[in-house]
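Obj.: predict assembly geometry.
Materials: sequence records (below).
Method: joint structure prediction, all chains together.
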Amino acid sequence: MPRYDAPVRDMQFVLHELLSLQSYSNLEGFGDATPDLVDQILEEAGKFCKEVTHPLNMVGDSQGCVRASDGSVKTPDGFKEAYTSFIEGGWPLLGADPEMGGQGLPYVLGTAFNEMMSSSNMAFGMYPGLTRGAYEALMEGGSDEQKAKYGPNMAAGIWAGTMNLTEPHCGTDLGMMKTKAVPQADGSYKITGQKIWISGGEQDLTENIIHLVLAKIEGAPDTIKGVSLFVVPKYIVNEDGSLGARNECGCGGLEEKMGIHGNATCVMNYDGATGWLVGEENKGMRTMFVMMNEARLGVGLQGLAQAEIAYQNAADFARDRLQGRSLTGPKNPDGPADPIIVHPDVRRMLMDSRAFIEGGRAFLYWVALHGDLQEKSPDEAVREKAKDYMALMTPVLKAFLTDRGLKACNDGMQLHGGSGFTKEWGMEQFVRDVRIALIYEGTNGVQALDLVGRKLAANGGRAIFSFFAEIDDFIGDNADNEALAEMVAQLTEAKAQLQDGTTWLMQNGMSDFNNAGAASMDYLQLFGLTALAYMWVRMAKVALEKTGQGADDPYYADKLVTARYYMERVLPESASHLAKLKTGAGSMMELAADRF
Amino acid sequence: MPRYDAPVRDMQFVLHELLSLQSYSNLEGFGDATPDLVDQILEEAGKFCKEVTHPLNMVGDSQGCVRASDGSVKTPDGFKEAYTSFIEGGWPLLGADPEMGGQGLPYVLGTAFNEMMSSSNMAFGMYPGLTRGAYEALMEGGSDEQKAKYGPNMAAGIWAGTMNLTEPHCGTDLGMMKTKAVPQADGSYKITGQKIWISGGEQDLTENIIHLVLAKIEGAPDTIKGVSLFVVPKYIVNEDGSLGARNECGCGGLEEKMGIHGNATCVMNYDGATGWLVGEENKGMRTMFVMMNEARLGVGLQGLAQAEIAYQNAADFARDRLQGRSLTGPKNPDGPADPIIVHPDVRRMLMDSRAFIEGGRAFLYWVALHGDLQEKSPDEAVREKAKDYMALMTPVLKAFLTDRGLKACNDGMQLHGGSGFTKEWGMEQFVRDVRIALIYEGTNGVQALDLVGRKLAANGGRAIFSFFAEIDDFIGDNADNEALAEMVAQLTEAKAQLQDGTTWLMQNGMSDFNNAGAASMDYLQLFGLTALAYMWVRMAKVALEKTGQGADDPYYADKLVTARYYMERVLPESASHLAKLKTGAGSMMELAADRF
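Observations (raw structure tokens):
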């Protein structure tokens, strides 16, 4: 069975040394997040995930969830007990608002916990993950009464939350949805329709499930502009907070899927279920986007998290498996063969994964910190830039981290040879589980289109220009840093390529929108590669400073090697993405549809 | 459920128009393969695969194989009946030797049939695929008596064959194997040991199973140089050809795997089983390599074949699924939305797959034709070049076609959005099934090492230099072809990059073998990209000639569009592979093993 050990040291490096969390102690919640407390939380969280959720990962995959004829759903053995420990440990409250009973700690710290949870058991982690998203949406769009009614129990994880968007005939194009809401005399609505692919739509972990459901109010425009958001609890919550009648909604079936078997993916039937409007009529997408953006970061995180556990076990295998001899002579002459880690191509897979994981982690936490800043910074300019970054980086993070996360899982499996293909070793589960992350919360193609179609152009390109300016500042600040010179030069080239691609898009994407669409995925990849290059050079700078100050932790030397590997062995891909995107939509769009 | 329709037109193009099979009619077997017969076989084979094997593909996945307590194995419902039809149709005999009752048709034609079989049902196709490999090895290395005893029934598929190499502690490094062979007074051997991952090691499809087993004869060197090959029939074959006693070997268990559930992957226990030496003592690897090379082409073919069926169904979905509107205005204004094929990023996935599949098919069949030429050409120089090419191209074909085949399956699944992740649509099965092809018969990393470590250097680089010369000749011959000028220029650049990479390897790989290992996978990718570019320009040339001659089949115009797409949108990756490989082994090999 695979192991999981939380990468606490690397998380500490990113939180303390790269992002300097302590320098934000003037911000709400950050003051409490002293280095000691952060370290303690990381250690405890790592222990919880290693001991409680990780041992259930393979069980969850092999058992899956089971729906009984009454529509109830049983999660795999041990999930309920683990969930209870999770609640009792107070883990859901880490980042929740103090007025809802939460600890109000930084979002970026919660991100580290979420990464561990998702590495250790992705299917399990989705239950609280969706609850958190639903909670955030209610906090953003709900009335004070709704917040008071659902907030504390959702913050604590005692009640779960779900998001209900997709219908059989519409996923990406939600304007086509058919679910109806009919106003009632008491101010509530009767919701009728079918939603599909609802993660955790039904389960046996929580006393109540608070469904957030998109539907069209009778008479509303039959487009995306007629979509409203409703809160539809599984059990109606009485005035005193106790649970009342069972609502007219339930799980009509479970999907059979490639992976994440431990998570119940439900067909949800709403048969005149009682719901209450969240926010304004016909403005449902606005609030839902809060949840979706949160969820998109959470999905990018899953790509990283699965890569991490795949990498750990691949490294173990590479050290343990004796097979063949080093090309440069035996390294284990007394053994029957050398461990396969002596082979360069095995190293290639490990180093590719490592360079992605550490760079991706820095990128994810850096973006998450902007999530804190956009809310909490006292400086309006900082808040604006942080908000710009969140909007710009979210699609990149979601798609790039899942795309590369799948590659890392595949590499970890590949490194295992035939064992990787067997269920017994657990590696193929990571590939199957992570695969959904490229699809849900908007496919990676939709993310790419969001990036080039909306995010780039917003506010006259303010976000991307401020990202370029930040990189230029960094390059300028380090012009005299000889030890960093080669990497700074590589970053300069990467940034120039991204700028070149951006200019091409601005010049060619408006005259023919298909050029923008045709370039979108290569542009997103180019963006992701450049963002990670920026993270890597920043990390290398920190590592150089620490070793310069006499730090003898080999962690820093390793960081520098991995930085060099990223710049030499991963970043060169950006040139090919740039070349591809500049060819335009021509040959891509030319064939008639019936000729495929 | 997915559909499968054999791509007969494209196969015809490759066989008749690109490779001009009819021009080889002086070769044994080719004279019989008249264009009419070839077309008839393609049509009939397509019908067989569509109607008989393909409908069992999802059944095979969901049921898998079941081992009873007596060690017998039941294949999924319908497999036995389909196999009987396969035998009765005489399909296994297509390419088999006339003296064994076969039709002796060209190997390249059999390749087309194998592609269809593998597209329609990869797990099913593996049973006859392994039999074919075992048959070839016996024809190569067996005595006349062995050929006469096993050949005809194996050629006809009445008996199956297997290859037994891997043991629990050794896969790639077969010198470590422990299976022993003890000589008996009657000239036979008693074989004892355990082999794992034996595809079709036990099944209920055939009357007998002829196992080819690698083992060390008592007293032989305990290295790869002490490995001998044995034929170990499940039922001993009597002098009169009837089946005698059950041999002391059997299936000890089935592996639970990520995919190819319809194929029985067996743990095989040999408990003093009776076997007979094939070829010389201690020279078992020589004959086994015949089987492995055949098998490696067959595995590359699987990558292509799964890509083809994934692509077909992705194209259907892209035409059928209505969601959103074209970026350039509604294309289906009367419908609720446009089909998603209007979106450039959806096209990108389809065109990537198409450019890979058609280019990969040309490459595969071109290599397979060299398989015929190396045996059958009356011209020694042609035979030598063909043999050189087979050796050089086999690892490229195996790794490149499976690597890109997985990408195409993933793209086909991705294009389906959430539906792609559900079992119901069948797309995720292609991803799970094809995944093994990157691993078995030598992982793709092992192929890359074989390419740079053995194949490049063999005979002073004769094979690669003759490939360069062939491309140069083509470029020279087409210097005045204006319609082809842009593609010829792109090919010229690609070939220069491959040459650059080859030179780098020769200069740096010998001084530090780790440089060769570190470069190997990028070099293989660069090679594959260049080989497909060569195929694409050749195909474009044919298509231009045909349209110039007034052919109005839109097939040719599509071929030209796809050629352009490949050169613009796929080939640019070669530059990044070249840049990566030239960085050497430095950062890849630097970390201490315990620091991963």
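Conclusions so far: The radius of gyration of chain B is 24 Å.
To do: check interface contacts against the pulldown list.
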